[in-house]
Structures are given as structure tokens and as C-alpha cells.
Amino acid sequence: MGFLTILKKMKQKEREMRLLMLGLDNAGKTTILKKFNGEDVSTISPTLGFNIKTLEHKGFKLNIWDVGGQKSLRSYWKNYFESTDGLVWVVDSADRLRLQDCRQELSALLLEERLAGATLLVFANKQDLPGSLSKEAIREALALDEIKSHHWCIIGCSAVTGENLLTGVDWLLDDIAARIFTAD
Amino acid sequence: MDPTAEVGHENGLSGESGAAKMQERLQKRHQARIEEVERRKEAKENQSVAEEKGEYFSSTFATEQACVEELLSSCSGADRAAVTQRLEEATARTVQLQKFLNDSMLFLTQYKMRQAQAALQSLQTSIAEIREKALPKKKFAFGARSKGPGNVPAPVSDAAPPDAAPPADSGEVDGADASEQCFFSNMDDEFLTKTSEEIQKRDVLLSHLSNCKVRLFGSPSTLHLKHIDSCEILCGPVSTSVFVDSCRNSTLAFACQQLRTHNTTDTQVYLHVTSRAIVEDCHRVSVAPFSWSYPTLDEDFTASGLDRDRNNWSQVDDFNWLAAGIPSPNWSILPEADRKTNWGP
Ligand SMILES: Nc1nc2c(ncn2[C@@H]2O[C@H](COP(=O)(O)OP(=O)(O)OP(=O)(O)O)[C@@H](O)[C@H]2O)c(=O)[nH]1
Ligand SMILES: [Mg+2]
């Protein structure tokens, strides 16, 4: 039995997944994480490092890493790539001025070898704002249709109302589970 | 979803060894068992409290929903004024209902949550439909932008021209949905104001302003300032974050949940911030407590949901200065003697 097969078996037994949440600063990553976990979102500060949360959902143990997105922190993102099963890319759908930044950061990530096997969920967040762009517009602006290297999906959501957070995470888990927990 | 403890901490038998400690260990083990039983009991009790809360939620939600539906159905055949008033009330109640749902999410089952979310959605749709039919569209044109609603993203279709893609190199996708996002941009030497009605719960963008005085009387959901030079910008309570980029030589005042300041120099911020303010790539930014006031400030504070008693204005995190214990040279507290007390009109 090869090493990879052993690893796979181990994961299978624990049904454990590692999710990495990234995106520009102010996108709403920490708010999504806390809302998903049913915590108060009114006291969240800009992340000066990272948060890790372990929670159970649908019989899986999720280790979710939420890393700060300020410019000065982005060079540290790579420290968190290892053994990521799912990448959650969070976009502030009302921040039209930084969509190009957002697109560039995402395409750089997708070239990373250590993220090669990860499933990509794009959250088009802040859909509650009247001026937010639709998920179709975000999909176009980020050129998601050009992604051939990863399984991906974009979901419009709002961390403030909680809308669609479950839908997104459920899709992600299903996709990952289909990849890593089913027989070779 | 079942949140579990962050990281399990077993009260294991670490460290000591030897028979002399055995008794103590057994005692500890016993204690741990008792605690475990207690914990389970408590969890069970919490469970039943959650169920009770769930019942309460369902019935309250249903009553309120019926009430809004009643209001909406009474719109048909009514005159303009009555429709306007009923729609307003229906909207306000729906917003309350959404809040109620948000606050209850912690203990609701997924099924209930989705059900409630769907009910809210259908209320919102009905409100929009009635408004569309009974009242002419109020176009939200804001600011002096000469361009019309520009590159509204075309409906996604397979037939889209292959070269339609990337927006200009400027990196700015703007103009889209100009009727929805509030903005002032490209102005010089102006006095600009917005009323509460115009900015309530919206995302407001101010960009490329110089030598302007701006007064935003109301509570937007979020506020972005970009390329601001020598301006005085005052804004009521912002329910989420204020994002400032490339601002110089200006005076700002607002209340918000988070303040994120980038590439900003020689700027004073009169601030009420309930979580934290940060600076990145900034120089000579100074902070003072929020002191601007206007007649409807109290109401706007309430509408924003911000905690008025929690103001961390003097604690600024500098992302370029992570040396613990040594204060950042990039920001400071504005000395009391230098603070503005009279804000004028
Ligand atoms: N209106 C609205 N505001 C949101 C939403 N999600 C997050 N926010 C607000 O956006 C601001 C930034 O949210 P955070 O969760 O701190 O953003 P982040 O992505 O973790 O930012 P960094 O930690 O700097 O990387 C906060 O003021 C949130 O309240 C949303 O869905 N709608
Ligand atoms: Mg964060």
C-alpha cells in the first residue's frame, strides 16, 4: 500500500477536512466563519493573523483556517496551503474598485502546486447590499470560466443575514467527499 | 451544525508518575467522570431550551408573517398614499422579521432556518412587485457622474462575444448598477450632502474628491472613500465597515463597526468604532473620539445597530508595525487642545 493510500485511509476514518478561507481584506471571511458557527458577528476586528475553528458538520470534522487578507499579510498565505482540501475564496461583491486585485490574487493561488488538489468555492459575499454585483457579474470579473484546474462553484451569499452560507459549505463538502472519501 | 470545542483539552495524567500519585489520579478520574455527567445533563437541558425557543420562534414568526401578508393584500385597490404607507410599514416589519431570524439562527434547525428565509424572500418579492405596479420607479441617481449606467454586465449567455471579457486596466469596474450604489465622484470645491433616506442601509462610495465638504446624515451599511484630497467628510453611524484608501490632508468623522485605513497621510479621524480601527501603509494619521452631531444622530445610531457604549477609537492596529510594546510611529492620538469642537453646518 502506497503512502498516499494510507493517508487517504486515515482521513477516511476520521472524516476530517481542512478548509482554507482566503480573500482580500474586508471581504467578510471572519464574519462568514463566525456566522456559520452561530457566533456574534458584531465584535469582529480585522484579522491580524489567523483564526482556526474546528467544528462538526454533516458528520465531518472541519478544520477551518481563516487568514487575514490585508496586503501586508498576503505573503504569509502560503504558510497555510499544506493539505488543504477546500479553498473558500471570499469576495466583497460591492467592492467594484478592487475586483482586478481580487482576480489577480485568486489566479495566483490557483497556480500553487500545494493547492492543486483543492476544491474551490467562491462566495460572492455581501449580496444584502443594494449596490452589490450579482454572482454572474463576479464570475465574469474573476474569469472563473477559465478555471480548468480545479472543481469550482460560485455562490452569492450574505454573512450578515446568513443567506446561502449553508448551501455553499454543503456543496464544498459534497465535492470534497466525492473526491477523497470514496473508493479509489 | 454542531460547533465543538476549539481544541479538546483532556485532563489527562500528564507529568507525574509513581504509585504515590495513584490515589490522587483515581480521585481526579472520579471527579472528571462526575463533571462529564454534569456536562451531559446540562447539554440535554440546553437542548430542551433550544426546542422551546424554536417553538417560540415559529409562532412569533408566523404571526408577524401573516401580519405583513395582510398589509400587502390590503394594498390592492387602495389609493397611492395608502399603498405608499402600507408598503413602508410592510418593509419595516420585514426588516424586523429578518433581524429576528438572524438573532434566532443559533438555535434553529437548518430546516426551520431555510423555511423562514424562503418566507422572507417571498415577502420581499411581493413588496417589490406591488411597489413596481402601484408606484412609479424612483430612480436612485446620486452624484454628478456624467457617464450613464455604463458597462452593466451583460446577461450571461453562451453567445457572448469571446473578446468581451476583462475590464479596463484601471482595475475599476464601475458604472454598473449606478442606480443602486450611492456615490459622489470627481468633484472639486463642493459642499455635498445626503439625507438619511438616500443612504439608509446602502453602500456609499466617495471617490476622487478634492477640497469638498461632505455631510452624510444617515446610517449607510458601509462606506468607501478613495482618492480624497483636502476634504472634510462627516458621516452618521455605519453599520459595518468604513474603508479608506488614498486619502490625504483631510478630516473625517464617523461611527462604524470597523475602520480600515490604507495609504493615507496627514488625516484626522474623529471616530466611534465598536470593534477595531486599523491602518496599513499610512503616515501621520491621528484619531480623536467622534464628536460630530446632527439632529437625527440618535435614531441613526439605533438603526445602525452599533453599540453606543463601546468605542475603541484610541486602539489602532498598524499592520506595518507589529512590534509588540513599541507604539507605531504612523498614527497618534490627536491632543485634546487640537481637537475640533465646532463642526459648522
Ligand atoms: N453588509 C454586509 N457586510 C458584511 C458582510 N460580511 C461581512 N460584512 C462586514 O464587512 C466587514 C469586514 O468583515 P470581516 O469578516 O472582518 O472581513 P475579513 O475578510 O475577515 O477581513 P480581514 O480579516 O481583514 O481579512 C465587517 O464590518 C463586516 O460586518 C455581508 O454579507 N454584508
Ligand atoms: Mg478576518
From TrEMBL, chain A:
Write the record's keywords in alphabetical order, separated by commas.
GTP-binding, Lipoprotein, Magnesium, Metal-binding, Myristate, Nucleotide-binding
Main location group: cytoplasm
Residues annotated as signal peptide? none
Record-listed Mg(2+) binding positions: 30, 47
Name the InterPro entries for this protein: Arl2 (IPR045873), ARL2/3 (IPR044612), P-loop_NTPase (IPR027417), Small_GTP-bd (IPR005225), Small_GTPase_ARF/SAR (IPR006689)
Q: Which molecular function GO terms apply here?
A: GTP binding; GTPase activity; metal ion binding
In which residues is GTP bound?
23-30, 69, 125-128
SMART domains in alphabetical order? ARF (SM00177), RAB (SM00175), SAR (SM00178)
CDD domains in the cross-refs: Arl2
Give the UniProt entry's GO cellular component terms: centrosome
What subcellular compartments does it reside in?
Cytoplasm, Cytoskeleton, Microtubule organizing center, Centrosome
Gene3D superfamilies in the record: P-loop containing nucleotide triphosphate hydrolases (3.40.50.300)
Superkingdom to which the source organism belongs: Eukaryota
Q: Which NCBIfam families match?
A: small_GTP
Which family, according to UniProt? Belongs to the small GTPase superfamily. Arf family.
Record PANTHER family: ADP-RIBOSYLATION FACTOR-LIKE PROTEIN 2-RELATED
What is the recorded name of this protein?
ADP-ribosylation factor-like protein 2
Q: Which organism is it from?
A: Scophthalmus maximus
Q: What is the lineage of its organism?
A: Eukaryota, Metazoa, Chordata, Craniata, Vertebrata
Encoding gene per record: arl2
TrEMBL record, chain B:
Domain named C-CAP/cofactor C-like: residues: 167-321
Gene Ontology MF terms:
tubulin binding
**Region (Disordered) residue spans:** 1-55, 145-175
Bias type Low complexity, positions: 153-170
Give the record's keywords alphabetically: Acetylation, Chaperone, Cytoplasm, Phosphoprotein
What are the Basic and acidic residues biased-composition ranges?
Answer: 22-55
**Localization, UniProt:** Cytoplasm
Identify the GO cellular component terms for this protein. cytosol
Work out whether the entry's keyword set contains Transcription regulation: no
What residue stretch is flagged as signal peptide? Answer: none
* GO terms of biological process kind: post-chaperonin tubulin folding pathway; tubulin complex assembly
Q: How does it assemble?
A: Supercomplex made of cofactors A to E. Cofactors A and D function by capturing and stabilizing tubulin in a quasi-native conformation. Cofactor E binds to the cofactor D-tubulin complex; interaction with cofactor C then causes the release of tubulin polypeptides that are committed to the native state.
Its biological purpose is as follows: Tubulin-folding protein; involved in the final step of the tubulin folding pathway.
Q: Which PANTHER family match?
A: TUBULIN FOLDING COFACTOR C, TUBULIN-SPECIFIC CHAPERONE C
Q: Which family does it belong to?
A: Belongs to the TBCC family.
| Name by which UniProt lists this protein | Tubulin-specific chaperone C
Species per Swiss-Prot/TrEMBL record: Scophthalmus maximus
